[in-house]
Amino acid sequence: MTSTRTGILGAGISDGLLLKPVTYPWAMDLYNQAVANTWFPNEIQLGEDLADFARMTDDEKHALVHLVSYFNPNELLVNKALAFGVYPYINAPEGHLYLAKQMWEEANHTMAFEYILETFPIDREAAYSNHVTVPSMAAKEAFETRFIQRMTSETLDITTTEGKKDFVRNLIAYNIVLEGIWFYSGFMVALSFRQRNLLRNFGSLMDWIIRDESLHLQFGINLILTVLAENEDLQTAEFADEVRAMILQAVEMEEAYNRDMFPRGILGLNADYVNQYVKYLTDRRLEELGFEPEFGVSNPAKWMATANDTLQLVNFFEATNTSYEVNAQATGR
User: Fold this and answer.
1) CATH number for position 301
2) What percent of the chain is predicted at pLDDT more than 70?
3) One of 24, 31, 89, 115 is an active-site residue; which one?
4) What's the pTM?
5) pLDDT tens, position by position, 137-162
6) How many domains does the chain have?
7) Structural domain contains residue 288
8) DSSP label at 328?
9) Within a domain: 5
10) pLDDT tens, 69-80?
11) Which residues are annotated as a binding site for Fe cation?
12) DSSP 3-state assignment of 9?
C-alpha cells in the first residue's frame, strides 16, 4: 500500500492509514509531548482547599462556581468540535493520533471539574444549569455550536472553497476563541486565588490543565496555518477580515461573561481587570495568526506571562511549511 496524501485535508476513510513517513512532524511532536503530559485528577488532593473555601467571601465563591459551571460543559463541547468538525476532515494519521489524545484530555478535564464539584460544597444542579440559564454563558455556547453544527451538515463538501472555509471557521471558533481566549481568561481567574494563597491545590490542578491546553492551542494554530498554506483559494482579504471579525466578536461576549462573574469584584480582581487581560490575550492570538493587534493594551496579570506569550509570528496568508512549527517544550506556553 502506498500513501495517497495530497494535503492535510481529506475525508476518505481509506486514506491516511500509514503513519510513516510522517508528513507533518509538528503533529507527531505534539502527540509525543501530550503522551508525556498524561495525568489524572485524583493525583492532587483537594481536601486541604476546603478550609480556604469555607472562609472565602460569597463573591469569591460565586466567581469559582461561575468558572466551574462554564468549564465543565465546555470541555465536552470542545470534544464535539473535534469529533464532528476536525477529525473526519483530515487524512494525516499523525494528526489523528494527536486528536485522539486531545479528546482523551478533554474528557480528563471534564472529570477534573467533576472532582471539584464532588469535593467542594457546590450545588451541582445549579452549577450544571448555569450554562443554560446565565445569558452570557448561553451566548458563548451558541456561538460555538453554530460552527460545530455546520460541520455536521450533509451538504458540507471539504473539497470546495466554502467547505474548507467552514473547516477553518470551526477551528477559529473552538481553538482560537474557546481554548485560546475564553479558557485562558478563566485560567487567569482560577490561578488568581493562588496568588492570594488560596486554593493552592486547585491551582496545581489548573496548572496541569493549562499544560494540556497549551499544546491544544499550538496544534490548532499549526493546523490552521497548514490548511491556509496548502489552499491558496482561502488566502483572500475577505476571508481574513471574516476571521478577524469572529475573534473580535468573541471579546464582546467574554466581557459580558466576566461582568456576570464579578458583579462587585473581589480582592484584587474585577471585571475591568479581567477584560483588559482578555484584550491582551486577543492581541496575542491575532498576532499568532499574522494579524495586527486590535487593542494595544498591556498585560495586567504579568505573573501569567509564561502561559500566554506569543508563538513565532507568521503571516496569516504567507505561511510556509516550516515557519509555523512550534516546540511546546521550548516555548513554555
Assistant:
1) 1.10.620.20
2) 88
3) 115
4) 0.87
5) 899 999 999 999 999 888 889 999 99
6) 1
7) yes
8) H
9) no
10) 888 888 888 999
11) 75, 106, 109, 179, 213, 216
12) strand
pLDDT 10s digits, 232-273: 999 999 999 999 999 999 999 999 989 988 888 787 788 999
Active site residue 115: yes
307 is written with which cell numbers?
502561559
Range of the domain at 228: 25-331
Distance CA 251, CA 79 (A): 22
Whether 123 is in a domain gets the answer yes
Asked if residue 51 is part of any domain, the answer here is yes
- Geometric angle at alpha carbon 213, from 138 and 322, rounded to 5°: 120
Helices (H), 86-160: 93-119, 124-133, 135-151
- Taking only the tens place, the pLDDT of each residue in 59-108 is 999 989 989 988 888 888 899 999 999 999 998 999 999 999 999 999 99
Instruction: Judge contact between 276 and 270, C-beta under 8 A.
Output: no
Would you mind telling me the total number of residues written for the chain in this entry? Answer: 333
Among the listed residues 167, 178, 154, 199, the one whose alpha carbon sits nearest the alpha carbon of residue 53: 199
Q: Which amino acid is at 135?
A: P
Binding site as annotated, residues = 75, 106, 109, 179, 213, 216
Q: Which residues contact 26 (CB under 8 A, 6 or more apart)?
A: 219, 222, 324, 325, 326
